[in-house]
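Exercise 3.2. Students should predict the tertiary structure of the chain below and write it as structure tokens, then compare their answer with the key that follows.

Predict this chain's 3D structure.
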Amino acid sequence: MASSSLYLLLFSLFTFSLSKAAAQSPPTAFHLPTRKDPRTRQYYTAITMSTNITNVNVVIDLGGQITWFNCDQYNSPSYRPVPCGSNRCNTLKGSGCVGCNRPQRPGCTNNTCGSSVYNPYRNLLYAEGYGTDRMNTLSTDGQFVLMGYDTKSYAFSCADAALLRNLARQTLGMIGLARTKSSLPRQLSLAFKLPNKFALCLPSSENGLGDIFIGGGPYIMRPVIQDLSKSLTTTPLLINPVSTAPAYTQGDPSDEYFIGVKSIRIDGKVVSFNNSLLTIDKNGNGGTKLSTIARYMLLHDSIYRAFAAAFVKVAAAKNIKRVAPVRPFGVCFSMTRANGSVPYVDLVLQSESVKWRFYEANSMVKVNNTVSCLAIQNGGLNPRTAVVIGGHQMENYLLEFDLVSSNLGFSSSLLQMNTSCSHFRIF
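Answer key:
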């Protein structure tokens, strides 16, 4: 923990010292370090805002539309509200106008472009206002972090302190990575004319830092020195025609990231269920999406029941004994040296040869020294989305969201390559 904190301190100092030098040459990609909070299992990163060099920890929301944080202690001379009716407001899809009858400060201004600020952990939606400020981000060559670059007019929202409920204690808000012009990747790619793509490498441990890359590869995960961008398996990113946001205009498509799963297999054996649930219907129901908000994979009730029964059967054949469940998990096992290997799980994608495979580290959770539980949970009888791939399943995979080609690229498990997403990048 101490080494991670030291890294973030060095990260901030390095950002400050190199911000002016960055003007010498354009960046080819950006990098932000990510952390995992052990208590909430949320993933977060640090952004450097304002000419006052203010570091803000924000929870990562893969499907989030905007960046927002509490501004109670944010005193920035470079902050500017976005006027309602302005071109910037229209680009951000601002909603109406907001004002404030208290002394003017960041988050309390008049005639300000309205924003919808959402905390998905508490299902809280507030009407706030857009502002802009300088944000400094480090460039990267895929292996090292390099110079700091200023985005002079990064758009975000200040938010009421009540919206911080259920967020990791060390964070002050959330940062969205969705396919919107107000998201972090899109704002940086537009500002610096970079390819509209980003990559995630979520850490499984608090003892190390993962990655957000913006602008594309290469992606180097030491001690492996090969560029992982060259060996990613790809599958199309699908558009859900109906928005999944908490507030939207009729006709808006979803900004979240969906993929086409055709079937699910356990140790190569197909799980039998109603496969029509895997297709997004005209009302936007069904299908498969990726989410950093869901801790674990969530399956529609009928899929979950079939999956759990099949997994228990395959596990029993390997001498893996089922034991009483440990909340919040529904299926748990006694894990001893006498067990066989834990069954692997495949999400079969656009063809039989394209599969996203999960091994024990991503399909199970160790709850004590002798018991591990299935890290796949019942998502209910009528979920909006039939399959939600949660944060635990994404850990230690490199995932590239390429909005130029509209593809998701994914590596095999980095643990199988003797590396992981828990590491430290060198300046």
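Discussion points: The chain has six helices and 28 strands. The helical segments are 2-18, 87-91, 184-192, 301-317, 360-363, 391-394.
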